[in-house]
Amino acid sequence: MLRRCVSVILGFVFTIFTATVFRAPAAAQGTESSIIGRVTDQSGAVLPGVRVTAASAALQAGQVTGETNEVGEYRLSPLPIGVYEVAYELSGFQSVRRQEIRLTVGFTARVDVQLRVGAAGETVTVSSEAPVVDVAASTPSTVLTKEVIDLSATTRNNVLGLLTLAPGVRTYLEVGGGLQMLENPNPRAHGIGYQTWYTLDGIAARTANQSVSWDSSTMEEVRLQTGGDAEQPTPGVQVSAVVKSGGNDFHGSALFSWANKRFESTNVDAALEAIGITSGDRLDKQHDVSGDLGGRVIRDKLWFFTAVRQRRAAYDVLNSFQPDGSPGQLINKQRIFTNKVSYQANPSNRFIFLNMWESGPEQKGLNEFIAYEAREFKNNGRTNSKIEWEGARGSSLVANLQFGHTRNISGSPFLNSPPLVGRRDLETERVRGDNVVAGETSYNRTYHTRGSVGWYKPNWWAGNHEFKGGFDYNADTDEFPGLERKKINYHLVYSNGVPDRVAFFNAPVSPHRAANVLGMYVKDSWTVARRLTLNLGLRYSHEAVFIPKRCREAAAPPSDIMFPAQCFDKVQLPIQNSVVPRLNAAYDLSGNGKTVLRGGWGRYAFRRLVALAARYDPNAITYGIFNWRDLNGNNDWDPGETNRDPNGPDFIETSANEFGALPPRFVPNPKEKQVLFDIFSLNLERELMPNFSLRVTGIYHQTKNIQRHVNIFRPYDAYNIPVTARDPGPDGRLGTADDGGMIGYFEYSPALAGLQFEQYMSVNDPRANMNFKTIELAGVRRFSNRWQLLTSFSATRKHQPIGGRNSATALNFGTSNPTFSAAGEHAGFFNPNAEIFSADRTWDWDGKMIGTYIFPGQVAVSGNFQHTSGDPFARTVNVRGGKTIPNFVLNVEPIGAHRRPNVNLVTLRVEKRFRLSEEQTLTATLNVYNLMNANTATGLQNRSGPELLRPRSIMPPRLAEVSVGYRF
Predict the structure, then answer these.
(1) pTM for this entry
(2) Contact assessment for residue 525 and residue 465, using Cβ atoms and an 8 Å cutoff
(3) Domains parsed from the chain with CATH numbers
(4) Is the pLDDT at 3 greater than 60, yes or no?
(5) Residue 61, SS3?
């Protein structure tokens, strides 16, 4: 409640301030796009007082007017994305009209005009090509226009389909789209695989999970970049999507797409059959139906846009079977409703409302090692909504205020009746029984308030200045994941079929965390002599992350000894205040806006998400892991087979949800330094021909104050007892020709065993600081004269001395895992075991080519080619023999000794348009995914043994999808 009040108070104060200013008529629009330029006569002398008028169907106010100043310069801003016609008029001169000026998100178009002496009423229409190089932006970006989104060969499922088009971005492969429908896309660009920032019409989606609810078919444009000016809060991939709006003219569309197993080829060859793989993950069936309508309620006053979409996909999983022998399936289903209303109250004030709501179930977590009974099932519901005010006074003073809200609710029901004991094997990796997430619930929400004021001051202090100041306030609440009461409150762990351990759950548990983040910034876009633009800014951030006071009941037996009823005091993480500068510049080398050199430096402070607090939450999901001896041989745990005393001899460790997260036994470090990112960039962009630009970019990214997690009762030097064994070699069997040398890890003294010696703290370790070096080449050809093209190549050299990810396996055909943990600020535990072959000094590279050509007869052909390097990994061995650490899965060679195969993926799209009338079109479309029917392994077994390097997943086979659409 308090956090919502803070949002309201901030917005109220901001509104009172701006309401006293924004009373005069102006063209208020909610984008950062602009048209600037200079007007001269035939001799080159500047012309003040020229009336400049921009008109576009995208303008709800109809048109925007301005006037050249004493040095002949003009500026029309802010303007919505769209296509413009600009008229220039001055008494005694011929009028000039410039047509087809295309503005994309955040683009500044320079349009210089020359007027000739002539009689009043004479007009010269100029149809020269629109600018394609942004002369003011100092950070390169990629804009996916409506034509790219609509015509490119992708599924347009969610944000994943958009990311696959962006230069330098690595994410999961999109092959037919069904399996990736509801997955976190985990994008990585220029080595940065964390701190991604998504905004939907300005609404902040604090995590990628929130962005999967986006319906990309409702997007007008999307801008993607890394880093930016002082307004950008994070250094990772920035995804800014603009939802379609209504208009004075009604427009709409409907689409139905379908595919099933009859539309699919087979890509299992003799080599795969020889190792027991008879089929890959194959489509059973999928369909996609959608419709949208936009238009006016009151001309030039009240516009609306509404859309609805339903999608369903079911895939048969490689070597997975249901009890009746039918294939195990991954299933995704999604319903999305989008509504947007734009109200132009008067020429100075505009209001926008948006709501995008999504719901649907998903079944996942299956592969050939996980039994069907152990699958994961979730019911999801997500909402993104906002109300926004935009105001302007001429083109010199603009303001914006927005209240946004996002919500994510999901639950994992119990699937087996009666419930089954969950079981997993550390060696064979086989899983049976109830999934550990059965009974999990999650609820998280964010209240996002942001506002800004911009002031343009021309011809002052050595140039033109565009000052801007603003704030954004995020109040996050997280109750994720919670765990309902379990009838079987434990999970059994085996080693090659032999009973080994038991994990006791602390269910029922209902965690609660919160994070309040206030960001404030000031910046100046300072243009000197029309050719040099300095983008200078400063950003301040205040972060308060905490876990409120909470009590819990005793865990259900037999976990009640490990997790008794208790209450917990409030945990306040160190409040972090940061001030970081951003210094960037753009220089027009040619003076005509066709060649721009950009560069600069920006510092970013790590932005803590509320999920990070989970490790400090004593009421989070926790598993107590103990030794287990099946004394009666009944293959189940019984009282007396484990000493459940957490300080007794059978206690091993605690772990968090799904055995993969950090144990929630952290205490705050009052001396903790905030993680910082420095990004240096240099970019050259040149317009090679009309509508086509080529850019080359170099980026150096350095991360400082990287954290590691130390057990304060077992410091680094406490791990001093070696546990050694002979490397059994790739075949996993000792005594064979491929045996290696001695390998091992370190454990601690039994005197330090037990729960009483488990308490962690994050500490900064300068040895773990990392850097990434990237070179990128990208070419963009805007849609014109029937064709468009987007092509790129990017290569990144990683230097991560500690904590590199061993990426042999992947989910959803992915080749992109984050460089390290999802939190992105740490390099693992602070003990010698975490440093054994954990450095990553390898390269990533990616190439993309996306193009469209419309042939005579209204036949559009689009192609999408992606080349992605396989992620590096190392062979591992499960070494056993310790007492306090009974076993440890060890890298026995450097990361990069092996790589997953490089992926080459081709998608083809053919669309035939039938013109029913001047305004109505029927379309028939064929999409072919994985055109070459490649069977590249996207996941490999990296554990020593007979299945080493055996594919665990391969690319889905060639799939054809048929669509029928209607537009008006």
Answers:
(1) 0.89
(2) yes
(3) 31-126 (2.60.40.1120), 142-243 (2.170.130.10), 251-664+672-961 (2.40.170.20)
(4) no
(5) coil
